[in-house]
Amino acid sequence: MSHLIAPSLLAADFLHLADSIEMINKSQADWLHIDIMDGRFVPNISFGQVLMPFIKKASEKPLDVHLMIEEPSKYIEEFVELGAEVLTVHIEAERHLHRTIQRIKAHGIKAGVALNPHTSVDLLDDILEDIDMVCLMSVNPGYGGQKFIYQTVPKVKKLRAKCIERNLNVHIEIDGGVGAQNAEALLQAGADVLVAGSSVFKAEDPIKMVERLKEIKSSFI
Ligand code: DX5
Ligand code: ZN
Predict the structure, then answer these.
(1) ∠68-70-72 over CA atoms, to 5°?
(2) For labeling, which of 110, 113, 131, 144 is most exposed (least CB within 10 Å)?
(3) pLDDT of 165-212, one tens digit each?
(4) Domains of the chain
(5) Residue 18 CB contacts under 8 Å (≥ 6 apart), including other chains
(6) Is residue 192 among the annotated active site residues?
């Protein structure tokens, strides 16, 4: 199986969302990454439930919803109904992670746990068996277009080693500052889902950029 590319809609032109989503539909992208922010868990406010039905209707790709919000458990059912196929909550925002993960999975969709750059992957030791994906933030969440934090690479290696040791097939998604310059290093380290916002949407030819990211070979996957 090849790695997955999930362009982040946050970097799109919001006056022309339909065109942006149509472009992603035509591309080799695997998922469409949707960043929900509340101005509390992260300093920024992006968009919320109001846009979701429009995005869902336009997108032919599964929606990979990244909740950067406090008390995410309050919104699980709502985002499932709005069409999330992968639903990720932050470990730092959730006191009862195990329960929330079980609730997400009970709806038959993938459950992800996101970690801020300072959060150790060791904190996943007692939940790794239960989750479908870990999203490692490679920038401080809240904004697109930030600089990639390089310590993410050894973090990916450490997490992939844990998965291999325990024979677990968990997706490792990298989110923030990902592009052609670091994709190969991330895949070689053991990542298999790359979120790409600015690097895709601000590229001269976004469809070509997705293709370029998709075609990178890694000995890992
Ligand atoms: C950051 C978001 C990211 C962001 C990535 O808080 O979670 O998904 O859209 O954007 P780029 O790829 O531009 O760093
Ligand atoms: Zn994100």
Answers:
(1) 80
(2) 110
(3) 999 999 999 999 999 999 999 999 999 999 999 999 999 999 999 999
(4) 4-215 (3.20.20.70)
(5) 58
(6) no
